[in-house]
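Everyone, describe these structure tokens:
***
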Amino acid sequence: MSYSALAVVSVVAVLVVDLAVYRTRMVTRKVFWTAYAIIVTFQLLMNGVLTGLDVVVYDEQAIWGPRIAYAPVEDLLFGFAMVTLTLASWAAVNRRANTARRRGRETDTRPSSTR
């Protein structure tokens, strides 16, 4: 599977996990997109430095071609998938812990602040 195809598959898989498996609907929240805007700014900055200085070099035949701040667009897809999966997993674990706490079971996690 190519780098580009894997990037698309990772985004689709994470959207399925967020919307259908965990049902956290992270990508439907304004707070997620606000946080993601901050994260992607720093991602572009670091990708720009690493690829602009040739610390990381991509085979041009392995990527689609378009770049943002020297980084291939596929890197943005992988970054989106990584951030979204992390936040959705965190929200799902906190929701589960809060549900257990409401039912009188002790957990080792703090109350969720994602509501």
In short: The mean pLDDT is 88. The longest strand covers residues 67-68. The CA atoms of residues 43 and 115 lie 27 Å apart.
